[in-house]
Amino acid sequence: MVALLKDAVPVQAVLGTQWGDEGKGKVVDLLGETADIVARYQGGPNAGHTVEFDGECFILHHIPTGILRPHITCVIGNGLVINPDSFQEEIAFLKGKGISIDKRLWISQNAHLILPYHHLIEKVAEEDKGSETLGTTGRGIGPAYADKASRVGIRVGDLLDPGRLAEKVAWNVQMKNGILEDVGGKGSVNVKSILDSLRYFGERIKACITDTSWMLHQEIQKGKRLLVEGAQGTLLDIDFGTYPFVTSSNTTIGGMATGLGLPPRKLDRIIGVIKAYTTRVGNGPLPTELKGAMGEKIREMGGEYGATTGRPRRCGWFDGMVAQYAVRLNGIDVLAVTKLDVLDTLDEVQVCIGYEYRGKALDHFPLTMSVLDEVEPIYDTMPGWKTTISDFKRYDDLPKPARDYLERIQTIAGIPIGIVSVGANRDQTIWME
Ligand code: IMP
User: Fold this and answer.
1) Contact between residue 225 and residue 37 where contact means Cβ atoms under 8 Å apart
2) How far from 202 is each of 91, 117, 209, 225, 231, CA to CA, in Å?
3) 3-state secondary structure of 31
4) Active-site residue flag, 21
């Protein structure tokens, strides 16, 4: 029998199927063993990708987790927004661990920069919304993408042209200070300090800046294997997520094409990472949310606190409607189920197999937020397995209720499961055959 995911294909993508925090970092790290390049296509330091091995925990925000494997080259695509300060902290953190980025990390000249005025604008907007606040990560993501769409953003490539950079920064600072003053004078920004820090940043990263789309095409042609890494999750997609409670990029598979300059036709396999239950951080609908003691229990057992902000995540049962939606939108071929071990101690587990809206069952995930706010999940109750499964290496060794649970997920999603993660470490993984 052939292991479903251990056999490498030339180009494959890993993305989140829920509201982020599915455990993509570990899956990318595992599949990195057979990849030559890992490329990220969207988001920014709002992401926190966690990998644990050799007793150490690594949390990366911009740089693909592939950097942790010395044979891998990493690419930051044009679809990302980069915060120069936290990006440099990440590089310093990696250096401190003996991990070099020299000739291993390439940044698209067309990626955008997050600058101090983006944080100030986001803060004002969030505060102004009162109870309607989105609950963003506070990393300036929305305003930076807004500048990109407004065609006034500052791109990584601008760092190589000091005259143009100075002009663009001066123009932006004037505009942004005007806006900040109009909304109540909550801080202002200064051209000189931004330019000084950008010049320094430019010097430090200029050797990494390139046309990454061209580079990826060349490398694929040479036969190099590419692993594409998504950030956040399907339900946080700016177009298809639970808008406005979403992030500001296309987390779904289309974002890969535009965020890397890679034609969809190049993709050989799409892997959807799905947690054995549901979580969400920030506000917005979460139909299977558990508001009482069970939600807290899962949060504590799963360590469900944001890797970027430390915020407690909202927890709920596995949502089959979300799984079907993500499979359809992204054309997912195979699932990686994560954190199954978190449910080890439960007497029973529930699986949402559909939604009812005003007495009628829905046949697909609704796009209208007022409908989603009102839907009643339809649950199947299944027995728990009451066994510690973190050391299990083979699917057949899992207790029957755990296998039944996985098979239920597989049936609902309509696609096979390729990996089951039963713990944070690399070896706490069951490869399906
Ligand atoms: P933003 O991306 O900081 O603008 O936040 C918008 C929404 O996306 C908020 O609900 C955040 O909590 C959520 N979000 C952004 N990045 C992540 C992530 O990496 N994991 C989980 N939720 C995220």
Assistant:
1) yes
2) 14, 19, 9, 29, 25
3) helix
4) yes
For the Cβ of 122 lying below 6 angstroms from any atom of ligand 1, the answer is no
Look up 49 and say whether it is catalytic.
yes
CA of 61 to the centre of ligand 1 (A): 12
User: C-alpha 147: how far from its chain's center?
Assistant: 21
Whether ligand 1 lies within 6 angstroms of the CB of 247 is answered as: yes
Cβ(423) – ligand 1 distance below 6 Å: no
Burial 29-41 (b: 16+ CB within 10 A, else e): bbbbeebbbbbbb
Helical (H) or strand (E) element with 316: strand 314-316
Closest CA to 118 of 88, 159, 84, 90: 84
284 torsion bin: left (phi>0), alpha (psi -120 to 50), beta (else): left
Report the DSSP beta bridge partners of residue 23.
none
Q: What is the pLDDT confidence band of residue 1, given thresholds at 50, 70 and 90?
A: very low
In three-state form (DSSP H/G/I as H, E/B as E, the rest C), the secondary structure along 356-369 is EECCEECCCCCCCH
- What structural domains and CATH numbers belong to the chain? 10-106+211-431 (3.90.170.10), 112-208 (1.10.300.10)
Amino acid symbol at 414: G
pLDDT tens digits, residue range 288-345?
Answer: 999 999 999 999 999 999 877 889 999 999 999 999 999 999 999 999 999 999 999 9
| Structure tokens belonging to residue 261 | 């300059």
Kindly give, in sequence order, each residue whose CB lies less than 8 Å from that of residue 132, ignoring residues fewer than 6 positions away.
Answer: none
Parallel, antiparallel, or unpaired for β 348-357 and 360-361? Answer: antiparallel
CA distance 311 to 328: 30
Q: What is the pLDDT of residues 408-423, one digit of tens each?
A: 999 999 999 999 999 9
Task: Tell me the average pLDDT across 211-231.
Answer: 97
Measure 255 CA to ligand 1 centroid, in angstroms. 16
* Distance (Å, whole) CA 424 – CA 387: 17
